[in-house]
Fold:
Amino acid sequence: MKNNIIAIVAISFTVVGTMWAVSNLISSNDTIKTLKNEGIILVAKDNLFNSTNPDIHAKTNIPLRITIVNKDFTKHDFIIDELNVNTGYLSSDQDFTTAIASNNSGIYQYYCSFHPATMHGRILVDD
Ligand SMILES: [Cu+2]
Structure:
């Protein structure tokens, strides 16, 4: 009888331990999903970013994931000199994911080096 109780207790610990491990695994997967879903997409098309070259808002010390997609037939790139962001040349239908990361608040310029006259906008980093 005593042995049975010990066995039941041991099994209970095993079950609880497994459930704990599984729930940790699930929650860490959730974290990865969340990270993947965060961030923004900029589509380079008709020599503009997202049609309007929108302001991009970011927070200091929180990297903002940003994906640039080229939907033109001509080459584009995406550069923020002050934040050391440079996607390199993107061919048609190519994309590149990087991050806007800054410790300092401020306004930074983004642009395409092939079409700086039409493809440029602002990064606003706030505390
Ligand atoms: Cu361009």
